[in-house]
Structures are given as C-alpha cells and as structure tokens.
Amino acid sequence: MTNGLQAADQVISLVRGNEDLAHHGVGCSHEVIARAEAEMSLSFPPSYRRLIEEFGTWDVPPTEFLGVYQTPAKGDELLGTPAHTREDRVVLGLPHHFMVVMHDDVWAVVVLDTSQPDQDGEYPVFAWNPGVLDGGLMEKIADNFGELALKECQQNLSWSSP
After folding, report:
1. Distance of CA 47 to the CA centre of its chain
2. 30, HSE (Cβ side, Cα atoms, 13 Å)
C-alpha cells in the first residue's frame, strides 16, 4: 500500500512533468481550503489537501479531479468538491460523511468515506452508485485518495505515450 502523501507527491511530479497532456489550476490557499471544509462540514485527508494546495483542480485526460477552485463567472463560490458534495447531498441523497472527489462514467460518484480514517488521517475511496436502494451500492476502489490519483494518472499517461 502506498502512503497517501507519497502518492500525492508522485502525482504532482507526473502532472508537472507532463504539462503538454495534463492540466491544472493555480492551487488553493489555506484559507480557501478551510472555507471549503467548513462548507462541507468535513476535513480533507492529507493526500487530497496536498494536491488541492498544489493545483486546486487538475486533470490527466480523460480523468478530471474536482479539487477546489473558483471562476470569474461564479465569483467567490467554491466549486469542485465542496459544490458537488453539497449538491449530491440534496439531489442524490449522498450520506453526510461522504466527500465527492470525482464524477465518473464508469464508477458513478467517487467518494471519500470520512467516517473511516486510517492512522495517517486518510479515508478509503469508494465508487458510490446512488441509484441502488438502501443507500447506494459501494465498491472500494482505493485505500486513500493519493493512491487513486496516482493510479489514474499513471494509467492515463501510459495510454498517451507513443
């Protein structure tokens, strides 16, 4: 098992080393991160926090990581994980202890289960399909966010290589 922060640092290196394929924002301040956490009433795990600090939001096509970001059109509103988490609670009945980190055609909603922190403060990652009775169908897809992001980035960049 890869340590979440080590994996996050590898993701940063991959994204920075492949800026012709990967895209990213400018990163988030500690104040913006604290505000995002307050809006969700949840705390980011160390690996996701590290990537949000560095990039805000990023993608390694075809995978888009929500992160936290703002746009001129939406002004001061925090988009990405805070917005999707709040919206999915209302629209999809997302349990309050889930944090949305991706929407995906294959996995439906990718969430961190904040009710299950490990010794490093990381949360397991689940694919959550809200269309199933009894709270949705869940499948564990990674032990922590850093591990998931690293696997996705490595896979997507290997597909892009000649």
Report:
1. 9
2. 0
